[in-house]
């Protein structure tokens, strides 16, 4: 405003033939920042602003963060004027790769992509906003988190499309691996993603074993639904094969084919296969976690193959005022069934001589639906698989659907949406273990912990959120962190220091890192019988330097241990220990608990200073650790 007023005065002075001093001219021409006063001395460590930079300081930004905005043009869309999913995958891969290379400082290649669920379609004229940043760097690989949303320029509306996690590998000269520098998270959100990235990595590594284990325990003879054989479409009719020649525009700056370009070609043939089953235009809803097996270069011939593996039925829930969607394949009573289908697609690379053996590049599984004009999924015809490999793919598709649902509703959901006790099943053990550990790590990474009490060496902190009151108890103990981890992860010894525990029976040893216990505790003051819990205990050693040892607890339900009349069944949604080594012989031991309603009165009494039970229990824990730190028998048992 001052500049505008000065400019108006200058104009009047010029019109009145008044001589304007040079200092005023310079001031008006250069603006308020062009003052002729002596320049201010730069403070130590202060960064010099670039010309034209905004005067107001902007918040610190993650150095690996990449933002991409793309206007959806007709050339990017399909016949419905909606953004092609293949084009979106190319943009996602490009943004993620640029973020990875910012951190690595060298070329990076896409190694894998986790499940992607597409929540909405994007129309022509809208803007796609992509934000990618490195969550964590391991030895030579790193996890990049990608958030995708769209923006309607006319209405100003913003809407989330999907969230994805990609793994990239840094490559040196001649494809050699590069050891990455560690990443230091700054914000609370970055600390949470950094911490949970180790759990996601663990889940990726056991993905294949999870599928094999589920198939091994499933009946070998899987009933094939055919609706009397009349409505089933032979899977062979949906088979698609297409070839693409990799040209320079398809390759990145390293000469390798864009991972996103390969995914776009795969999406194209998968869409054709799905269309051959339903004789309609399908919509891609999800892409299963996949891995790139090897690189492809300019000049390669990529052969892409796709086939519908299975079609699934889902009960369609009628909405008042919304008519039942018509089905060209089903009779009226069955038209309350909507459907989805899984399409398997593979990419193989050949050189100029097609007779030479191929190189397997990638395999992926994509889930499609067919939507009516109101956006409701329509029923689909069933698939009749071909004998042999077709029946194997049919069974595997059913197993993948179960795993996909486990990952989506156990791993992806918010902690406030997870029921206190989740049914334990051997097939979802990986995801329940992930949820158990990640919930604790999310609690640990919260930023608003407040010191509530301090009694000698014991410190008690609280965290108040919308739906939960959580507390943290910590103490420094003269014991190696690995030793404290071994002692505290064994619930069968908890009664030796925690007076609330009566007994803990090991019900099931899931693996070396996950155990299920039946715990019996003392009577609560307002109860006339003791409590019991069925608890999943998951433990993790540090993934890299600076990580804590973690022991996480959460309630599960087991058919073999239902609630019994002599006990009050208790539940815990999130609790456990984190142990940080402070030196070779010193450790910081912290216990976290997200208080459930039945436990809340006990916690608030301790926070308010009306009781010292929690502090006394933790002092007993310190004595237990000191007493047993030289116990060689327990050291060898290690859990």
Automatic annotation (TrEMBL):
SUPFAM superfamilies: Bet v1-like (SSF55961), Thioesterase/thiol ester dehydrase-isomerase (SSF54637). Residues 449-608 form the START domain. GO terms for cellular component: cytosol. Residues 62-174, 236-374 form the HotDog ACOT-type domain. Pfam families: 4HBT (PF03061), START (PF01852). The keyword Aminoacyl-tRNA synthetase does not apply. GO terms for biological process: acyl-CoA metabolic process; fatty acid metabolic process. It catalyses: butanoyl-CoA + H2O = butanoate + CoA + H(+). Residues 36-63 are annotated as: Disordered. Keywords: Fatty acid metabolism, Hydrolase, Lipid metabolism, Repeat, Serine esterase. GO terms for molecular function: carboxylic ester hydrolase activity; lipid binding; long-chain fatty acyl-CoA hydrolase activity. Pathway: Lipid metabolism; fatty acid metabolism. InterPro entries: Cytosol_ACT, HOTDOG_ACOT, HotDog_dom_sf, START-like_dom_sf, START_lipid-bd_dom, Thioestr_dom. PROSITE patterns: HOTDOG_ACOT, START. PANTHER family: ACYL COENZYME A THIOESTER HYDROLASE, ACYL-COENZYME A THIOESTERASE 11. This is ACO11 thioesterase.
């Amino acid at each position: 405003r001052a500049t505008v007023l000065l400019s108006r005065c200058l104009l009047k002075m010029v019109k009145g033939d008044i001589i304007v001093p040079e200092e005023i001219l310079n001031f008006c021409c250069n603006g308020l920042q062009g003052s002729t006063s002596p320049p201010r001395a730069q403070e130590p460590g202060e960064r010099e602003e670039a010309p034209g930079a905004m005067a107001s300081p902007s918040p610190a930004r993650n150095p690996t963060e990449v933002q991409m905005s793309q206007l959806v043009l007709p050339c990017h869309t399909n016949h419905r004027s909606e953004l092609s999913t293949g084009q979106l995958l190319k943009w996602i891969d490009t943004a993620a790769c640029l973020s990875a290379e910012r951190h690595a400082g060298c070329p990076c290649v896409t190694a894998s992509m986790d499940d992607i669920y597409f929540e909405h379609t994007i129309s022509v004229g809208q803007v796609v906003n992509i934000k990618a940043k490195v969550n964590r760097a391991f030895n030579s690989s790193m996890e990049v988190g990608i958030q995708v949303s769209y923006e309607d320029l006319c209405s100003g509306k913003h809407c989330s499309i999907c969230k994805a996690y990609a793994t990239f590998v840094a490559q040196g000269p001649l494809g050699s691996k590069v050891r990455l520098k560690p990443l230091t998270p700054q914000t609370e959100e970055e600390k949470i993603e950094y911490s949970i990235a180790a759990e996601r990595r663990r889940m990726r590594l056991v993905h294949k074993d999870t599928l094999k284990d589920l198939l091994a325990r499933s009946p070998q003879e899987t009933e094939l639904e055919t609706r009397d054989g009349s409505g089933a479409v032979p899977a062979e009719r949906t088979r698609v094969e297409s070839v693409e020649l990799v040209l320079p525009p398809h390759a990145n700056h390293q000469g390798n084919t864009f991972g996103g370009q390969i995914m776009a070609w795969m999406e194209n043939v998968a869409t054709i296969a799905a269309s051959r089953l339903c004789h309609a235009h399908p919509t891609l809803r999800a892409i299963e976690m996949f891995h790139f097996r090897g690189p492809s270069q300019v000049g390669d011939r990529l052969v892409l193959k796709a086939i519908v593996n299975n079609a699934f039925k889902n009960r369609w829930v009628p909405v008042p005022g919304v008519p039942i969607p018509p089905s060209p394949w089903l009779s009226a009573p069955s038209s309350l069934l909507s459907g989805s289908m899984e399409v398997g697609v593979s990419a193989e690379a050949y050189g100029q001589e097609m007779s030479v053996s191929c190189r397997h590049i990638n395999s992926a599984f994509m889930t499609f639906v067919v939507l009516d004009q109101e956006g409701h999924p329509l029923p689909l015809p069933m698939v009749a698989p071909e004998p042999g490999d077709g029946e194997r793919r049919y069974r595997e598709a059913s197993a993948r659907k179960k795993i996909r649902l486990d990952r989506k509703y156990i791993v992806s959901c918010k902690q406030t949406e997870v029921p206190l006790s989740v049914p334990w099943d051997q097939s979802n053990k990986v995801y329940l273990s992930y949820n158990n550990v990640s919930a604790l790590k999310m609690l640990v990474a919260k930023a608003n912990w407040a010191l509530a009490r301090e009694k000698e060496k014991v410190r008690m902190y609280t965290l108040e959120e919308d739906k939960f009151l959580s507390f943290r108890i910590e103490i420094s103990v003269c014991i190696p962190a690995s030793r404290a981890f071994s002692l505290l992860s064994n619930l069968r010894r908890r009664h030796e220091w925690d007076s609330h525990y009566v007994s803990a029976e090991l019900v099931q040893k899931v693996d070396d890192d996950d155990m299920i216990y039946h715990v019996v505790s003392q009577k609560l003051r307002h109860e006339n019988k003791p409590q019991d819990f069925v608890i999943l205990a998951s433990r993790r050693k540090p993934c890299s330097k600076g990580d804590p040892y973690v022991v996480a607890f959460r309630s599960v339900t087991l058919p073999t241990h239902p609630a019994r009349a002599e006990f009050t069944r208790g539940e815990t949604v999130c609790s456990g220990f984190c142990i940080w080594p402070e030196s070779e012989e010193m450790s910081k031991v912290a216990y976290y608990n997200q208080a459930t309603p039945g436990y809340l009165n006990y916690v608030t009494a301790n926070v308010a200073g009306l009781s010292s039970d929690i502090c006394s229990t933790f002092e007993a824990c310190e004595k237990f650790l000191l007493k047993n730190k030289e116990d060689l028998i327990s050291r060898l048992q290690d859990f």
